[in-house]
Task: structure prediction
Amino acid sequence: MFAFWIAAASVSAAAGWLMLRSARLASARAVGEDPSLVVHRRQLAEIEDLAARGLLPEGEMRAARAEAGRRLLAVADAAPAPSAVPGGRRSVLAIAVVAPILAIGLYVVVGAPGAADRPFRQRLAEWRQADPATLNPPQMAALIRSIVAERPNDPEGYRNLALAEMASGNAMAASGALRRAVALAPKRADLWAALGETFMAEGEGEIGVDARAAFTEALRLDPGSLSARYFLARADIADGKVAQGLDGWRALAASLPADDPSRLALTGEIAAVAKAGGLPRAQPAPAAIRGMVEGLASRLEASPDDPEGWVRLVRAWSVLGETQKRDAALAKARALYKDKPDIMNALDEAAR
Result:
């Protein structure tokens, strides 16, 4: 460990010396005429040439000549930037050397230099022995990923990996796992339907071209696929084919047992869409999408230094109509990135 810190100090000092050397060389090369003067003189010459050949009207020629002359005078009058003083160079180099040394001392005082390393393989072994209920979604995803690597031709393993990745808030990794699963078992309608749901999660609830293709293939393989029937009818409603989509939902509801809670929920959704003439703005999200968003929220609680993740979370809660959760996530993100205007602007845009 101490060898690492010594190496870090040496690298820091070398980097500081190289930066100062480059600055000194650049300062030396800067002596002489400002290259921008040459550019502006060439622009004046080009204006005169165009005017001489009759390609530039008199009024435009005068205006262009005046503007180019103004820029040339501004550059010529500008004072050269002051060069760094030798004392400043020595200070920078001293800081580059001393900072790692101070870091070593601080680590010895408040750290644990005698603690043994915990390789990732060791942590995986511990997770395999642990109760799965005690693992968070990223740990579970890492564990299943290691199992899949041992059994690369098992589509069920990729399906389980996709579920763990979705719970971790990584819809892209989930869709990648399911692509592999359907490649291994292209006749399984449940895998195609799950792939369609991950595509929806990537699109924050939108049933895009890829999702529709996956649901269509699932329905071709299994005409009774509940997920495919539901989402393809929903896509029809989103496209403005409200009557066609409602017919699909009514047929789906009729095929469910009378005591099935899903039938009651779907009947209520049919009534809401029929009354509104389309999908309500705050339509409840499918379980897969809501699970993905909840997983993203959990991951950010554990590892909050992820500005893109916070923007995605705020946007997702906005799309789902969860204003309280959106505002809570926005408040946490604002506290984390209050000194970064670009991230604050992205968060405000996501909230809208």
Remarks:
- The chain has three domains: 2-110, 136-276, 304-351.
- Residues 81-85 have pLDDT under 50 and may be disordered.
- The longest helix spans residues 2-29.
